[in-house]
């Protein structure tokens, strides 16, 4: 298990994988890995220019590598998670052009930026990291339901598993170890009374987990085969920390973050392994995949456990209700009554 690497991924020919934030960091490396295994990867990016630039880089690196198929299937599309309209347009476009989505990777994110609001008036970290992905998942759910899934392609999948039927799609939600610093305050989810940029990041990442686990409970209650799996990358050297520094306006923070990334950050190609594992390996719905190395901050993927707050069912249900009301997006299953108390 500790030695799992992307080389263990199954053949993904014929599958469709959607990756949010595909132009940078973990999303970029995830896109590259899925595409090299033969998947069609829909690169959901807030900037189509940056997405196309990233797609070109991925294609060029494949063309220069004798071990890679040079003809990667990449489809760059606009999806700004800070806009419910953009999410709706993206989902409508996908429904028009695709029959099914086998894997949705809810990966994009922002970290510890000064308070701002999305187009719809949500505090940006909560709005992009959680609410945007909630809305996107709901809007893509019909496409996920019609998918054959990775397991339809993989002979390695055990037919004995009763929890997850073969031929099922997956939703992978990228959280962070920072969820442990998150606290749900349902009286001020939009951070209007007070704002701490790190606290807001922690809460958005806790919300990712509450959502991922609640989604699995609702899927199970509706007896659907789809799996919702959560993961975190440990500490990876990406633009996430550099954007935090840029937006702080403090040049010293840029120097500090660059240094910290160089010393402590693992390569994004390794940081993305928990997401790749959650998307393609033999893993149960509701699992939490994390790096198995030093302090779960680096190394190859393993199954772990997030903090107790992330498994709080009452908070998860409240968050689901709030998110439904805030985004206006409903899922095609699961009334509250159908869930265990
Ligand atoms: N790197 C780490 O050590 C670490 C640790 C724990 C968790 N994570 C999580 O990993 C995920 C990926 O982060 P990363 O490290 O790969 O950072 P990154 O290199 O900064 O990538 C973040 C991606 O999210 C996109 N994004 C930001 N706002 C968006 C919006 N409104 N709509 C759509 N996309 C948007 C960015 O697009 P632009 O390029 O256009 O800004 C970028 O493609 C995040 O959810 C983060 O919380 C990372």
Automatic annotation (TrEMBL):
Instruction: Name the Gene Ontology molecular function terms of this record.
Output: oxidoreductase activity
Which residues are listed as membrane-spanning? none
SUPFAM superfamilies with a match to the protein in the record: NAD(P)-binding Rossmann-fold domains (SSF51735)
Arranged from A to Z, the UniProt key words for this protein are:
Oxidoreductase
Q: Say yes or no: keyword Oxidoreductase present.
A: yes
Q: What is this protein called?
A: NAD(P)-dependent dehydrogenase, short-chain alcohol dehydrogenase family
Q: What is the lineage of its organism?
A: Archaea, Methanobacteriati, Methanobacteriota, Stenosarchaea group, Halobacteria
């Amino acid at each position: 298990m500790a030695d799992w690497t992307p080389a263990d991924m199954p053949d993904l020919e014929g599958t469709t994988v959607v990756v949010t934030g595909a132009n940078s960091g973990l999303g970029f490396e995830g896109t590259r890995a899925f595409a090299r295994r033969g998947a069609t990867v829909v690169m959901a990016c807030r900037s189509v220019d940056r997405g196309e630039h990233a797609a070109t880089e991925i294609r060029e690196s494949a063309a220069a590598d004798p071990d890679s198929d040079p003809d990667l299937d990449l489809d760059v599309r606009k999806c700004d998670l800070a806009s419910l309209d953009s999410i709706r347009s993206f989902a409508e476009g996908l429904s028009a052009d695709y029959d099914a989505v086998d894997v949705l990777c809810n990966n994009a994110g922002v970290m510890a930026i000064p308070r701002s609001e999305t187009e719809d008036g949500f505090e940006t970290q909560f709005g992009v990291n959680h609410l945007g992905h909630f809305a996107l998942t709901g809007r893509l759910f019909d496409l996920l339901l019609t998918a054959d899934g990775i397991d339809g392609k993989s002979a390695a999948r055990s037919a004995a598993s009763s929890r997850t039927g073969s031929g099922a799609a997956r939703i992978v939600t990228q959280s962070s170890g920072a969820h442990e610093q998150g606290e749900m305050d349902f009286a001020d989810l939009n951070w209007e009374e007070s704002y701490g940029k790190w606290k807001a990041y922690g809460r958005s990442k806790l919300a990712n987990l509450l959502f991922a686990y609640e989604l699995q409970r609702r899927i199970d209650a509706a007896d659907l085969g789809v799996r919702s799996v959560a993961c975190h990358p440990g500490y990876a050297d990406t633009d996430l920390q550099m954007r935090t520094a840029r937006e702080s306006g403090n040049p010293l923070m840029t120097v500090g973050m660059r240094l910290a990334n160089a010393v402590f950050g693992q390569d994004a190609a390794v940081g993305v392994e928990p997401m790749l594992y959650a998307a393609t390996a033999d893993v149960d719905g509701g699992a939490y995949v994390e790096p198995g190395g030093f302090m779960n901050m680096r190394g190859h993927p393993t199954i772990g456990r997030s903090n107790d707050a992330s498994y709080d069912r009452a908070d998860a249900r409240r968050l689901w209700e709030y998110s439904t009301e805030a985004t206006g997006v409903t899922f095609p299953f699961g009334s509250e009554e159908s869930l265990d108390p």
